[in-house]
Amino acid sequence: MVQYFGILNVTPDSFSDGGRFVGEVEENEAENNNPLSLSAAPLYQGGASTEKVFVDKAIEAMNDLFGAGADFVDVGGQSTRPGAEDFGWEKEWSRVKEILEGIKQQSNRSTEPFDNQLLDFSKISLDTKNHQTARKFMEMGGRIINDVSGFQDPGMMEVGAEMCGQIPSVLRTAPLDPRGANTSDPLFIVNHFPGETIEDAHEQKIDSINQVVDELCKKRDQMISAGINSDSIVLDPGIGFGKTMALNWQLLEFPVYVENFSVMIGSSRKRFIDEIERLRGGTMERWFEKWEMSEKDFEALGKGRFSPEANRVVERIAVDSGARYVRTHEILGKKDRTIELRDDEVSEGDE
């Protein structure tokens, strides 16, 4: 069964939801801020500006994602959009630390479920490309790392191997919880990232799905050689990072090419969705036909990449192709989680 990663960006400049949970404050406000309060924790100070994270607001948003049906929430402190600032791990950690500590506190003392879902720290994923940030998360008890840069940092391999080594082998055979996730095993999501920096990656225009498969599988083998359990590795083809618009669409079918490994698809609100009309009638037409896309689907896509209806069509293709995980900004609700069914295929007895 497919599982969903809700997205929580603790950044001022993410393309979709930047600035919701972190922003700049005046110097006097920063000085007067109570560091013991979870509502507005002081963060990184650089130059004339000071950043502040809104912890309570972020945790409320996280509860909303879990309440809507998310299986995990992916927390990130650095934007990867084109033109985003590429900075050191200290600033990244300062953005996510207070939120992670707040989640940890609530997770430890929670006794009642929120919409049938405890705010469980083991269901938190950290979106980072820095091994120092990943290590601090691991020391807090974190078990899921999502590295958009494709484990280029050698230290990330070491952290991954340590995380696998810390889990006794007997626990790796633990039964699945009711939502389908083994809460003992760590997960490492490795993205296809065609460049050394964010800017490098976005300047590429790869057009071959075989290149993505070959390069990502090579990285997977390197991770296994470094001591990371193969069953802890999740492959993400990196939709939106250095690919042509047509290839971004084709990569929705990436799971077909790596059947023996779990795949995450992160297509949510990405620019390729807005290119649908330009691609119709060309070489992509056979792909659209294979996916049995209807005029109703194209109408939904025509509403644009920030439309829930458009993202539902895209995510349905990924799920039909065998994606194990979907990373998304909006959880459409537990009723809508059977997204492999089109609206016109759902009978009165379906949920």
Please tell me about this protein's structure.
The protein contains twelve helices and eleven strands. It has 351 residues and is an alpha/beta fold. The protein has one domain (3-342): Dihydropteroate synthase-like (TIM Barrel, Alpha-Beta Barrel). The strands form two sheets. An eight-stranded parallel barrel has the order 1-5-6-7-8-9-10-11, surrounded by four helices. The longest helix is centred in the first third of the chain and has 21 residues, at 89-109. Mean pLDDT is 79; it is low at 26-49, 113-117, 167-183 and 337-351.
Question: Which key phrases capture this entry?
Answer:
single chain, 351 residues, alpha/beta, TIM Barrel, 8-stranded parallel beta barrel, 3-stranded antiparallel β-sheet, 12 helices, globular
Q: What is the gist of this entry?
A:
With 351 residues, the protein is of the alpha/beta class.
Coarse structural class: alpha/beta
> Any idea of the CATH class?
Alpha Beta
Percent helix: 25-40%
Please trace the helix and strand order, writing H or E for each element: EEHEEHEHEHEHEHHEHEHHHHE
Count, helices: 12
Overall geometric form: globular
- Assign the CATH architecture: Alpha-Beta Barrel
Strand content: 5-15%
Largest sheet: 8 strands, parallel, barrel
Number of domains: 1
CATH superfamily: Dihydropteroate synthase-like
Q: What's the count of strands?
A: 11
Radius of gyration (Å): 20 Å
Give the termini distance in whole angstroms: 15 Å
CATH topology term: TIM Barrel
Within the largest sheet, what's the order of strands? 1-5-6-7-8-9-10-11
Oligomer: single chain
